[in-house]
Amino acid sequence: MKMYYVDNGPHIKSSYNTSKMMVHLFIALLPIIIFSSYKNGFLPYFNGYGTIFAAFRPIILIIIGMLTSLSSEALFYYFVLKKKDKQELFSALRYSFAIFPGLFLALIIPVNTPFSILIVGCVFATIIGKMLFGGFGYNIFNPALIGALFIYSTYYSNIISNGGYLNKMEIDTIAHATPLTNLKSLNYINSYSNIVSSFGDLWDFFLGFIPGTMGETSVLLCLLGFMYLLITKVIKWRIPTIYIITVFVLTAFIGYYNNLGLWYPLFHIFSGGLMFGAIFMATDPVTSPTTSFGQVIYALCLGLLTVVFRFLTIYPEGVLTAILTLNMFVFIIDKIGATVRFNFKRGLISILVLLAAISIITLYIANTIGRTDEVDDKKFNIINIIYEDNKTIYTVTHKAYHGLIEAEVIINNDINEVIEINIIEQKEDVWSQIENNNYLTAIIDNQKKLDDLDTISGATFTSNSLKELVRKVLADYNKKR
Amino acid sequence: MKKHLFKGIFIENPIFVLLLGLCPVLAVTTSVENAIVMGLSVMFVLFFTNTIISIIKNIVPEQVRIPTYILIIATFVTIVELLLNAYTPIIYTTIGIYIPLIVVNCIVLGRAIGFASKEKVFNSLLDGLGFGIGFLIALIVLGGIREILGNNTITIIDNLSKLTNVEMIYQVLPKNNVFPMSVFRTPAGAFLSLGLLIGIINTIKINRRGNK
Amino acid sequence: MVGINLPSNKKMSIQSEILEFIKPNYLYIPLVNYNNLDCDCLVKEGDLVYKGSVIGISNDQFNMPIHSSVSGKVIGIEKHFYLDGNEVNCVIVENDFKEKVIDKKVYKQKITDYTKKEFVDLLKNCGIVGLGGSGFPTYIKYDTNLPIDIVLVNAVECEPYITTDYVLMREKTEEILDSLDAIIEINDASKGIIAIKSYNLDIVDEFKKYIGTYPKIEIAIVDDLYPNGWEKKLIKQVLNVDYDKIPIEKGIVVNNVSTIYAIYEALKYNKPLIEKIITVTGEKVMKPQNIVVKIGSSFKDILDFINGIEAGEDVKLIAGGPMMGVSIASDKAVVSKNLNCILIIENDKNHPLINCMRCGKCIEVCPVDLSPVLIKNAINNKEALKYLNPKKCIDCGLCSYICPSKIAVRNYVRKAKLSGS
């Protein structure tokens, strides 16, 4: 009687292999690594900006990132998890794919980051973003994004003082910061020349020769990587396609509402690292949903959140925070996705709710931005200006707590200062407080530093209206001078 | 008897083990000086309220127990508040909002209802003292970590200097690219450092239990 | 509902002729019916039996007879391994090589001359069960008052390595068509469809030679994907019909093509099911081929008959196909009615323990729309298992097959199925 080996489960196995999938991911990243080291390192050096050491800086940053995360994970396994046996340690490291947090982190930070900050960020990303949750396969948040968030929130001033986002060549040739901070300063709606042309034309955006972080500028190479990952069936393809299409559609709507052409949504999807974030960071298999319907919801929410963060908050780039926020909800999204496979009607409800939320929010954004100047203007109105020899008399109205305040402001032309304010009409109920504190005199005394002047407690809105009134009169006077 | 004193410091440390009353902890530990002042205030309140509540525990009827205890606690908190306001106005503006919150701090109320209302006077006194010391130590450790990492200094007496004419600010680390980490001055850093500290302490406890 | 194109590995066993191993020394007839081990043995030690006489009967609602495959003497009862890895009682019959049958009964001249009741009784008395692997008593499918509209013949054979249906169709084309025609006539069905997969277009040509004379029979070609042989998916693909519990609700009866051939032998010669074709194949077999064996043959005897197996520690003996078959510990196992393959392959070396990557591939391939990885994570959570529906699992094994981290996902789903009940 011969004995045989006994086993469970299917006795043939497919050729898919986690290690092979990670190798495919690395191969897809190689063109981006090469391009970033060329554009941020060698290109300035060949054009005469920067030393030979600065030419190697990008590639050194990437290598430092990979080595730091690998060694911090090895130290964690050795000391904390007590894997002192060499064989066990090697196999644990090999199947934990430790170089990826460090590699991704090095690709999403500015080129001028000091090395020590990168090392601290990599250690933070690996230990706190990945190992403390349980290692590979158990982390909730994308570890590279956790590290990037740590670096940006802690060391932003250090990076800016070291040179910021611009490499040695761009500092001399480009006047602004990254394209999205420029957009924000222009109040989101402006002309093609102001938003795009200061960095190049849209073709430069597509190829990647614009300022930004190390790896996320080149749209062409990101798309090539996406094709490669699609062919080798490694990527969750629904997430990047729906994410990018959502952002395109929403920004197209906002641009069309404000009479901007097709270049506006193209600008939005080519800048801010959206391509890199959508293709490589949002599709990280461990932190994204597993069900296909869940992936659709995830990508829709990502697109919506990115647009909201870009337009309605003070942070110019929305991708990092959007992905991190939605990583928290992956569990619920998967639950919806698993039940939807049995009855599709429940999924229809969630999709409809999501689409409704998206349309409402987009309409809101399209209405509020680009109109801020008008809204501001509506608060303040110049009724009449009388020019005399040595003084100018402004009769103006300004929006106050109840209705408008109408006032007469007299400016002395010789000293270019306000000398008198007469209130013609007001309907405030706290006016006694203004009078008791001689606020008008205080405004005249402090007119050059109105920001430092305190408002009267109990009459804050009225005090602010008065300050704004005088401030705008002075601005108009100085403009016309 | 000694165990009542040491219980609050190590085995049942209110912050690292019981995780009670964390709101003021995360807010005032931006510098060691603030932490010391807050810790001393809570220790003062705990000590006296535990003692007095234990003394009167048999006189108070069951139905009005909680309002009575809160009244007693509020009295002592008001004493602390008035003292701080008078002698250390600058500190009072920084952490003053959390002083009245000591009245409903889970530690104070919890020890009052859970221990002092049932045990003997001396035990309650030691218990209050122990928990106060535990709270103070925890606050100092957390404040020290946050201030060293976030500010490169340890400030023991700075804003009190008007009172004592002594200034003790120690620069611990030189300023370089890595330190100070400004995230530790923010609430995010508070949560981070508290979480990591509790994790380290739990690991040590598990290892000690495993070795035994 | 999707499928995967598995590597078929079928060419190795269809080149040669069908061997016959019908003269074993001993036969170990398993006392089992449709995975139910509760059967009564009707003979005792020392009895003489004929080929085809009833030696056991199952103790459940089906009451299926168990036949002896040869004539000879009953030696005793022994435990052997069986298709699902358990041990089963087997009646040992010593072969006297005389192949004596019981007195010939009068059987019909034309095989279409049976009434419906006679047909059902014939199926039961001949012990015909589903030969596609299920072992379900066939007579139950026809013992119904609902009208039978379409008889669908499952000739897909989607599991890799197995080629029994293929060689049967190659050798006995006309008989299969005769039998199907008879079934249609007896049960007043409107038509019969034979479903063949697109990989076997040469078999389609074989059938097309004769199909003209059978106006009610059609051929349908299905895609070469696993698990297209699963009943629900096949009916959906060929007829575009959904049913709730059993196909007879919509007037459809599904039978495997080997069962159809066994019905032919029952209709024409009143012969009970005592022998069948199995495939002995695998990389470790020197010369893989199909063999006609008697029910109750021991694996050891069959493997000795082939005499070309590489031995070793790292070899697995599997009863059934590679996806749904069970690996058996020793060769002290018997051929039962629902076995159709003996597979001997190399054991995959131990895969390293990689954590689940949450790639979602197991969810994409599941033909029943389950989410295996979520079931694995919620294995102890009764609340979550309610909306994840692990009971619908058909055990096809695609989730474990495709997992890149080589996690045995199917085991978790099986465990969840059991824990729910």
Model description:
The complex is a heterotrimer of chains A (481), B (212) and C (421). Chain A has 23 helices and 4 strands. By secondary structure, chain A is α+β, with helices and mostly antiparallel strands. Chain A has 3 domains: 17-174, no CATH class; 175-210 and 236-370, no CATH class; 374-480, no CATH class. In chain A, helix 1 packs antiparallel against helix 3 (57-80), helix 3 (57-80) runs antiparallel to helix 5 and helix 3 packs across helix 6. The longest helix of chain A has 29 residues, at 18-46. Chain B has helices at 2-11, 22-28, 32-55, 65-87, 89-95, 106-116, 121-151, 161-164, 187-211, and strands at 153-157, 168-171. The longest helix of chain B is centred in the middle third of the chain and has 31 residues, at 121-151. Chain C has helices spanning 116-125, 138-142, 164-171, 173-186, 201-210, 231-239, 257-269, 299-306, 361-365, 372-377, 382-388, 398-402, 409-420, and strands at 19-21, 26-30, 39-41, 48-49, 54-58, 65-67, 72-81, 87-95, 150-155, 191-197, 217-222, 252-256, 275-281, 289-294, 315-319, 326-328, 341-346. Chains in contact: A-B, A-C. The interface between A and C is large, with 43 and 57 residues.
- Helix and strand composition category of chain B: mainly alpha
What is the subunit organization of this protein?
heterotrimer
Uncertain residue segments of chain C: none
Q: What is the radius of gyration of chain C computed over CA atoms, rounded to a whole number of angstroms?
A: 22 Å
Largest sheet of chain B: 2 strands, antiparallel
Class per helix and strand makeup of chain C: alpha/beta
Q: How are the strands ordered across the major sheet of chain B?
A: 1-2
What is the chain-wise order of helices and strands of chain C?
Answer: EEEEEEEEHHEHHEHEHEHEEHEEEHHHHH
Report the total helices of chain B: 9
Please indicate the percent range of residues of chain B in DSSP E strands (runs of 2 or more): under 5%
Mean pLDDT of chain B: 85
What's the N-to-C terminus distance of chain B? 25 Å
Overall number of structural domains of chain B: 1
- The portion of residues assigned to helices of chain C is 25-40%
Binned, the helix content of chain B reads 55-70%
Largest interface: A-C, 43 and 57 residues
Structural key phrases:
heterotrimer; B: 212 residues; mainly alpha; globular; C: 421 residues; alpha/beta; Rossmann fold; 3 domains; four-stranded antiparallel sheet; 13 helices; 27% helix
